[in-house]
Amino acid sequence: MKETRAWALPGIVGLVLALALGGAAVYLFIRGVSALESGAVPVLGHGGVDVTAGVLALIAAIIVASGMLIVQPNYSRSVVFLGRYLGTLREPGWWWTVPLTSQPAVSLRVRNFESEKIKVNDLRGNPIQIAAVVVWRVVDAARALFEVDKYEEFVKIQSETALRHIASQYPYDTFEDHSATSLRENTDIVSQALAQELQERLAVAGVEVLDARLTHLAYAPEIAHAMLQRQQAEAVVAARAKIVEGAVGMVQMALAELQRHGVVELDDERRAAMINNLMVAIVGERAAQPVINTGTLY
């Protein structure tokens, strides 16, 4: 079912018509009662007809008045007559539409849904906790009302389902291959994939997904300590590798400068000793303690 515009006229038209019918009903009823009380005509004569016409006019006025409705800004009112969808009114204001219809309202405002922290396994089977916030709005009131049951609850359930599915498609972190997509390092890519899947799931309800972002991401408590140790070990190894890389460059530069200026001639054994001392001094965690040599190396 697709949303269409309902037939409607300005509310003042319905009000004037209802007042006219109501005034006619009062006039006919009073005239008929007066005629009956005077006894000038039989009960089934002119007076009875006026009373009957007055009652019918009053009923018609009530029916006409039932077609008047007010549409608030950023709301829609759908018109349903005897189980048949006649259309939807989006323009704010006072309207008169088909009488004797139900007119359920649907908010068209932008809304947020923040999921609870849910526990799910990532691509590698590690248990993680994840949560997200979804920004959405209704763009088709007919689908929201008639295609799904309680569209707000439908958005909530489908959002959590899509979040679980997306979380299982990526690892929490990539320790070896940093070019691969992970939940922790590529939140923009993951959020885009979540928004796309949510749009596919919620289109049947006439809902547009404006944005979807992760608000919480962490390892489950039972493995959080072990994974923290792994991350710390990875950081230490990366730092050591960087230090060694820099130390090698500094040693090469020192030897090149000594040779270029002719400060000292180093044979292979002295060069090896020099390299060893420089590497220890640069890479070591503690400050180097200088030793003054007053003799030779032999």
Structural description of this entry:
- Mean pLDDT is 84; it is low at 41-45.
- This protein is rod-shaped.
- It contains seven helices and ten strands.
- Strand 3 (75-81) and strand 4 (84-89) form a beta hairpin.
- It starts with 8 loop residues before the first strand and ends in a 15-residue tail after the last helix.
- The protein has helices spanning 11-38, 46-65, 141-146, 151-167, 187-202, 221-261, 268-283; strands at residues 9-10, 68-71, 75-81, 84-89, 93-96, 105-107, 111-114, 118-121, 127-138, 207-219.
- The protein folds into three domains: 9-106; 111-219, Tetrahydropterin Synthase, Chain A; 239-283, no CATH class.
- Strands 7, 8, 9 and 10 form a four-stranded antiparallel β-sheet that branches. Strands 1-5-2 form a three-stranded antiparallel β-sheet, covered by helices on one side.
- The chain has 298 residues and is α+β, with helices and mostly antiparallel strands.
Entry summary:
The protein is built from 7 helices and 10 strands.
Outline the secondary-structure elements.
Blueprint: E1 9-10, H1 11-38, H2 46-65, E2 68-71, E3 75-81, E4 84-89, E5 93-96, E6 105-107, E7 111-114, E8 118-121, E9 127-138, H3 141-146, H4 151-167, H5 187-202, E10 207-219, H6 221-261, H7 268-283
Antiparallel strand pairs: 1-5, 2-5, 3-4, 3-6, 7-9, 8-9, 9-10
Helix pairs in contact: 1-2, 4-5, 6-7
